[in-house]
Task: inverse folding
């Protein structure tokens, strides 16, 4: 016998209606404020956020604004900003896009990057050079 529990359902419209600033900017997006030459350009973005916000962006909006306000305040203090930047860099750890891509290839696709043979990046591009080739 499994215990049943319910997970509250996320309704982005509640966040849209509940925050006047968020509603204003979304209405501006939908109404063409940012694309006056093509008013319907961003309607799909509006619809995806208000009716199908699968990443819960509207739910995170207020937290994002609070965090951005804090960032803006810290930025006004160059010493504090520099300290936070150095600590961020120092704690970021080892990151390499080559390593990340290699791990993805191995762990997700089951291939070793060395198994994939690609032409050198410059191959075939010599003909695109605007200067005549001297031999």
Result:
């Amino acid at each position: 016998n499994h215990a049943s529990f319910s997970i509250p359902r996320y309704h982005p419209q509640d966040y849209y209606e509940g925050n006047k600033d968020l509603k204003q900017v979304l209405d501006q997006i939908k109404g063409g404020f940012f694309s006056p030459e093509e008013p319907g350009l961003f309607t799909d973005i509006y619809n995806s956020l208000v009716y199908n916000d699968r990443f819960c962006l509207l739910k995170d909006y207020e937290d994002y604004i609070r965090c951005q306000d804090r960032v803006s305040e810290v930025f006004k203090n160059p010493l504090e900003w520099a300290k936070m930047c150095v600590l961020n860099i120092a704690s970021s750890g080892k990151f390499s896009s080559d390593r990340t891509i290699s791990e993805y290839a191995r762990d997700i696709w089951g291939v070793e990057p060395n198994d994939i043979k690609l032409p050198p990046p410059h191959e075939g591009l010599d003909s695109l050079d605007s200067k005549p080739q001297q031999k």
Q: What stands out?
A: The radius of gyration is 25 Å.
